[in-house]
Amino acid sequence: MEIRIGDLAKRSGCEVVTVRYYEKEGLMPKPARSGGNFRLYGDAHIERLQFIRHCRSLDMTLSEIRTLLGLRDNPTQDCGGINVLLETHIQQVEMRVAALLQLRQHLVNLREKCSGSRPMEACGILNGLSDSNCHVARSKQSNL
Amino acid sequence: MEIRIGDLAKRSGCEVVTVRYYEKEGLMPKPARSGGNFRLYGDAHIERLQFIRHCRSLDMTLSEIRTLLGLRDNPTQDCGGINVLLETHIQQVEMRVAALLQLRQHLVNLREKCSGSRPMEACGILNGLSDSNCHVARSKQSNL
DNA sequence: ATAGCTCTCTATAGTAGCTATAGAGTCAAG
DNA sequence: CTTGACTCTATAGCTACTATAGAGAGCTAT
């Protein structure tokens, strides 16, 4: 049961180019090739790509996924590392939510400053944006 | 009162390279030059850069900021366009928050699946990630 | 004047995770 | 035998910067 890259992509809900990209990045192993130099994939490839895509749908970075795949390929150890990775990831997501909610509040405050159609010079929003004293506090890398 | 790029950057809380980048992108006008070919800035530049940085701190894209600057430089019309832009931006932020909260729930569910230190094959998290039936629903471009 | 130091200049490449394009080859059906 | 769908490689583009190299400007201390 050997399928080509288009089928593999379809079954995993991603683009053909993305599969090749994962191969280049070392997340997917180099597959066998047909006589005409087409990539040929089997069940293990399908499962692995679905694993990757599922991790991506959980917004993990390729680097995190690489780590998970490494742990998975190396099943002698215990799985404490996986718990740590997931816990860290959850915390990052929660921090991002908090930052976005703060941001939303700033934007809503700004929106209140102009009700509608005034001449440009009187627009409270523009003036609010010009006001250099009301910058949003941000850490070094915002991670919104 | 003419300052050089380092001072300008310091006053606006960004890097020197970022100022040059904004110039290349057409957000900042090309400034006058000194005899030694150094960029020289005045008050208008300072105000404009602070405006840009404030918008960035509100997570607006450079493209959105370009639009705002265009509206600002063209003060004959009324300011309805600014309201629309801001409203759209707030909605994008709210969608992102919603998506992240969903994502967080998925991650927390996954975390429940493995309490601690089992051998790798039994790790509920890895098995949960392999399960292709539990992908997170995502629109075309996730915008997390 | 010369050394040392900080600031500035241009140009280029790298970051993440793809997406898009060009130009060529493969393969099955009509 | 040609059409069409699929695949191949290689390269450039996207966002908003960051990092690097190598050279010049301008000030202070000797």
UniProtKB/TrEMBL annotation, chains A, B:
Pfam families in UniProt: MerR_1 (PF13411)
InterPro entries per record: CadR-PbrR, DNA-bd_dom_put_sf, MerR-type_HTH_dom, MerR_fam
Annotated GO biological process: positive regulation of DNA-templated transcription
Name of the protein in its database record: Cd(II)/Pb(II)-responsive transcriptional regulator
Coiled-coil region list: none
Single Gene Ontology MF annotation: metal ion binding
Signal peptide: none
Matches recorded under CDD domains: HTH_CadR-PbrR
Superkingdom field: Bacteria
Keywords: DNA-binding
Domain HTH merR-type residues, every copy: 1-71
Cited PANTHER family: HTH-TYPE TRANSCRIPTIONAL REGULATOR ZNTR, REDOX-CYCLING DRUG-SENSING TRANSCRIPTIONAL ACTIVATOR SOXR
The species this protein was found in: Sphingopyxis witflariensis
